[in-house]
Amino acid sequence: MADARENRGQSDHGNSPQAVPSGSNGGLSDVASANSNIPAPEQPDSDLLDKVILPKDSYGLLGRGGGVLCLLAALIGVLGEAAAWLLFKLIGLFTNLSFRGQFSFAFNAPTTAHVGWWVLLIPVAGGLVVGFMARYGSEMIRGHGIPEAMESALYHESKIPARVAFLKPTATAICIGTGCPFGAEGAIIATGAALGSIVGQIITVTKDRRRVLLAAGAAAGMSAKFGAPLASILMALELLLFEFQPISILAVAIACGVAGGLRIAVMGTTPIFAMPALPVPTLEPLPFTP
């Protein structure tokens, strides 16, 4: 009987798991090393902003590196205004080349040009040029612009190729300048998003902060082009950020504020299309007005 208990004890001891060596924490990395079928834990994204040495008292709401993120958002606001100004000038250039045969950046309406039956072929030529750019340049310039920016934020770690920042405004200016029925909203949002993404790729940040920079660029471009900073902030929060962290909202707001202020300084407050004098609304149409 004693021999049987001794044999059973040796058997149980042989089948028991190996003890964790002293000095080892028995964590997930040890288990992964013991069993090759278990993948090692993923390493977090490297973030250069977290390596910025700041006094602990200055962290506050922004957190470590948050102040630098806001400075980058201000830089993106400047780039957004530059992109909006360049798009405006390119539209004027291609409009004058197509309908007047002049190399001029002045914003002249094509309705005052008299080109006869050529007016039917100019948009076709513009569409062909843009088609070649979309075919051999980048697929991201084929769409409206906003869905492509959303796709980059959701599925491509907010990484947009640098050539999009050049091809998208150029293709849009050719379309509008040759009379094709397109607008500048999607183009400036895609261009601004590309600029924000480029900044986030040059400076090593996590994909989450790169998404913030992408959204800040898109909102800055819209704010600079249309003079609507508040609407641009809401657009970025709804379509590109998908979250309401204070640092994200602050970065987008700074980019929109800088871009909107520069728009007033560079392009003024005069609307692009002249509006007639509108009557002041009154309460007379209402039924309860005495």
Structure description:
The structure is a single chain. The protein is an all-alpha fold. The chain has a domain at 82-101 and 121-267: Clc chloride channel (Orthogonal Bundle), CATH 1.10.3080.10. It has 10 helices and no strands. The chain has helices spanning 2-15, 28-34, 66-99, 122-136, 146-155, 164-177, 185-202, 207-226, 229-241, 246-267. Helix 3 (66-99) packs across helix 7 and helix 3 (66-99) packs across helix 8 (207-226). The longest helix is centred in the N-terminal third of the chain and has 34 residues, at 66-99. The model is unreliable at 4-36, 38-42 and 52-61 (pLDDT under 50).
What sort of overall outline do the alpha carbons produce when their principal axes are compared?
A: globular
Largest sheet properties: none
CATH topology of one domain: Clc chloride channel
> Which ranges are low-confidence, i.e. pLDDT below 50, for 5 or more consecutive residues?
4-36, 38-42, 52-61
Radius of gyration: 29 Å
Number of strands: 0
Q: What's the average pLDDT?
A: 80
Brief summary:
The protein has 290 residues and is mainly alpha-helical. Helices cover 58% and strands 0% of the residues.
Please write out the topology.
Elements: H1 2-15, H2 28-34, H3 66-99, H4 122-136, H5 146-155, H6 164-177, H7 185-202, H8 207-226, H9 229-241, H10 246-267
Primary descriptors:
single chain, 290 residues, mainly alpha, Clc chloride channel, 10 helices, 58% helix
